[in-house]
């Protein structure tokens, strides 16, 4: 039988993950849980320490333990014809790894293939930056309609004056079905209409025919070449810079 503190910690962890506590909210004071029959002071204290070790709460201070913010302050969900763009969750690691750990995909990106720890770090980083106020990055998971599994990502990060950089990738088995076009269109529309951006750019490897076809189809204009723009897969690579301006955008 698991010790009493462990049962309590497991139950509270499930409640925190489910979102029963708002980010920043305090957990109940230890003495209230003792009074409610959850166990001795030591039991509750040990359970809280276990939650802290899992990174679900910050340290016990004052009258209670504070729930660590565990997600974006205002989660974004964009629904388009074929895909849904949503915030990442920590459960997305395997799906993310299938994308950013795949050389077929990363051959076209600005970074080399990543391992599981790096996939976890990517999600943690995206969630952390999603909590910033003001938010300057929208790094979203792409899923199919009616299926919560992640098949790609799309990202806008602010850079410059009312400007954003667009990035995206789709898992290789799902290529050619219009998912990236849909995702990029939805995110660009969101950036112009909801975020008030004026300019969105995308830097694409000169040989990335699919990505170039996609932005041209969406109405982006070719601006020029960024020389030795990224160092990836062991060498420097140029990028072709594309952009679209607010008044040019036709969703
Ligand atoms: C680029 C990428 C995101 C496209 O994803 P996708 O879901 O297959 O894209 P779509 O199905 O929406 O297709 C986009 C367009 O590219 C075209 N296309 C696809 N593969 C192509 C290829 N090999 N050569 C030329 N055009 C191609 C499609 O025909 C489509 O145009 P169409 O609708 O006029 O036919 C995907 O290939 C990918 O993840 N690549 C690796 C990562 C990457 O390159 N990210 C972008 C970095 S700038």
From TrEMBL:
Pfam families: Acetyltransf_3, GntR. CDD domains: WHTH_GntR (cd07377). SUPFAM superfamilies: Acyl-CoA N-acyltransferases (Nat), Winged helix' DNA-binding domain. Keywords: DNA-binding, Transcription, Transcription regulation. InterPro entries: Acyl_CoA_acyltransferase, GNAT_dom, N-acetyltransferase, Tscrpt_reg_HTH_GntR, WH-like_DNA-bd_sf, WH_DNA-bd_sf. Residues 83-243 form the N-acetyltransferase domain. PANTHER family: GNAT FAMILY, PUTATIVE (AFU_ORTHOLOGUE AFUA_3G00765)-RELATED-RELATED. This is N-acetyltransferase. The lineage of its organism: Bacteria, Bacillati, Actinomycetota, Actinomycetes, Kitasatosporales.
């Amino acid at each position: 039988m698991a010790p009493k503190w462990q049962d309590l910690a497991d139950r509270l962890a499930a409640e925190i993950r489910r979102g029963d506590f708002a980010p920043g909210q305090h957990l109940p004071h230890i003495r209230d849980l003792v009074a409610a029959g959850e166990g001795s002071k030591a039991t509750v204290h040990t359970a809280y320490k276990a939650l802290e070790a899992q990174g679900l709460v910050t340290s016990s201070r004052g009258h209670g333990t504070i729930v660590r913010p565990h997600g974006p302050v205002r989660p974004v969900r964009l629904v388009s014809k074929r895909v849904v763009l949503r915030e990442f969750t920590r459960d997305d690691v395997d799906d993310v790894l299938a994308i950013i750990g795949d050389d077929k995909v990363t051959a076209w990106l600005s970074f080399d293939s990543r391992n599981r720890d790096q996939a976890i770090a990517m999600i943690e980083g995206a969630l952390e930056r999603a909590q910033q106020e003001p938010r300057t990055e929208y790094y979203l998971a792409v899923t199919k309609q009616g299926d919560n599994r992640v098949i790609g990502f799309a990202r806008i990060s602010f850079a410059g004056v009312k400007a954003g950089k667009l990035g995206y990738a789709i898992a290789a088995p799902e290529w050619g079905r219009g998912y990236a076009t849909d995702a990029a269109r939805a995110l660009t529309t969101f950036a112009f209409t909801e975020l008030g951006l004026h300019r969105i750019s995308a830097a694409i490897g000169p040989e990335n025919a699919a990505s170039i076809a996609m932005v041209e189809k969406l109405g982006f204009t070719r601006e020029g070449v960024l020389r030795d723009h990224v160092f990836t897969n062991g060498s420097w690579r140029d990028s072709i810079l594309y952009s679209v301006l607010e008044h040019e955008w036709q969703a």
